[in-house]
């Protein structure tokens, strides 16, 4: 049985905002934290726009949109997470940044049975777990982009995570959020990224070596294999910085060439061409 009513989401970028939206639309009371007032405003606008779009497209009524907005609150002070039953961290894929956040959460979240979760794509959960005094209550809850649309959530117990935490996390993910949960061991990439990232890197290598144009690579997979979007468009959607970080974590873990980021990917990250979120990636975005 899900016993979780108050959720905290750390980070309101594209994943954090999506996760906050999914939780609030499912009736949970959600507090979102960002580091600065400016970042918080951007996140708040992102959430408002997404909910307004959902109302315009008739997915939710205007009343449901307003009720959902009423369940969302915003802060720049993680100290306000004291009463949270579940916290989902969704900040950049940087081990040091995430570790520090888990140390702070451990200090501020006072509920003894609170679950501290990370939306990490590839960082070992056990490292975040042992940064806290409650490693049995730390788990990976990994959503997919766009979180309000994709049905899947990966649940990743660390070596230290208790069965009770896994069961409670599964109950909220499936019973409250209505997602389909799959379980994976705490190995970089889990299930989906372990399969997806080598595919995206192969597409980037193919583009870099001039074998085909970006449009032909994407059309190949969209029209030949019925993928909803081709690999270069998908990399732009995920964010090239995220694709590179996940690839680097997997390469560090396995030392397999198929996880090595091609030079073009790193150059695009260095240039700040991160995909849709910066207006430019493999494609331009207005
Ligand atoms: C790297 C990480 O660790 C892991 C990951 O996240 S891996 C990435 C996983 N994601 C994918 O593979 C995405 C693949 N692409 C897709 O599923 C689809 O192309 C897409 C949903 C992004 C867009 O779909 P598409 O049909 O081209 O566009 P569109 O018609 O605008 O959207 C389809 C539906 O999704 C909704 N949607 C699209 N983007 C949305 C968003 N950001 N938020 C909420 N809803 C959204 C639309 O409202 C629409 O809903 P409707 O059909 O009920 O009206």
TrEMBL record:
Residues 189-285 form the 3-hydroxyacyl-CoA dehydrogenase C-terminal domain. Pathway: Lipid metabolism; butanoate metabolism. Residues 7-186 form the 3-hydroxyacyl-CoA dehydrogenase NAD binding domain. SUPFAM superfamilies: 6-phosphogluconate dehydrogenase C-terminal domain-like (SSF48179), NAD(P)-binding Rossmann-fold domains (SSF51735). Keywords: Oxidoreductase. InterPro entries: 3-OHacyl-CoA_DH (IPR022694), 3-OHacyl-CoA_DH_NAD-bd (IPR006176), 3HC_DH_C (IPR006108), 6-PGluconate_DH-like_C_sf (IPR008927), 6PGD_dom2 (IPR013328), NAD(P)-bd_dom_sf (IPR036291). Pfam families: 3HCDH, 3HCDH_N. Belongs to the 3-hydroxyacyl-CoA dehydrogenase family. This is 3-hydroxybutyryl-CoA dehydrogenase. It comes from Streptomyces salyersiae. The lineage of its organism: Bacteria, Bacillati, Actinomycetota, Actinomycetes, Kitasatosporales.
């Amino acid at each position: 049985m899900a016993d979780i009513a108050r959720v905290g989401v750390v980070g309101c970028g594209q994943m954090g905002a999506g996760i906050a939206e999914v939780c609030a639309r499912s009736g949970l009371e959600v507090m979102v934290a960002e580091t600065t007032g400016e970042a918080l405003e951007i996140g708040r606008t992102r959430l408002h726009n997404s909910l307004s779009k959902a109302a315009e497209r008739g997915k939710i009524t205007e009343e449901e949109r307003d009720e959902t907005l009423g369940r969302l609150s915003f802060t720049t002070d993680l100290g306000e997470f004291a009463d949270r039953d579940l916290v989902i961290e969704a900040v950049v894929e940087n081990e040091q940044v995430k570790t520090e956040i888990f140390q702070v959460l451990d200090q501020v979240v006072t509920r003894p049975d609170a679950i501290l979760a990370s939306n990490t794509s590839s960082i070992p959960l056990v490292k975040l777990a042992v940064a806290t005094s409650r490693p049995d209550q730390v788990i990976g809850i990994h959503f997919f982009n766009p979180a309000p649309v994709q049905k899947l959530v990966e649940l990743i117990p660390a070596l230290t995570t208790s069965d009770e935490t896994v069961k409670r996390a599964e109950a909220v993910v499936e019973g409250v959020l209505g997602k389909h949960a799959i379980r994976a061991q705490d190995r970089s990439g889990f299930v989906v990224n372990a399969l997806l990232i080598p595919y995206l890197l192969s597409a980037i290598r193919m583009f870099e070596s001039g074998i085909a144009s970006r449009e032909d690579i994407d059309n190949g997979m969209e029209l030949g294999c019925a993928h909803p979007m081709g690999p270069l468009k998908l990399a732009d959607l995920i964010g090239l910085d995220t694709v590179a970080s996940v690839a680097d974590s997997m390469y560090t873990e396995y030392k397999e060439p198929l996880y090595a980021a091609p030079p073009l990917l790193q150059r695009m990250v260095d240039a700040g061409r991160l995909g849709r979120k910066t207006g430019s990636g493999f494609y331009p975005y207005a």
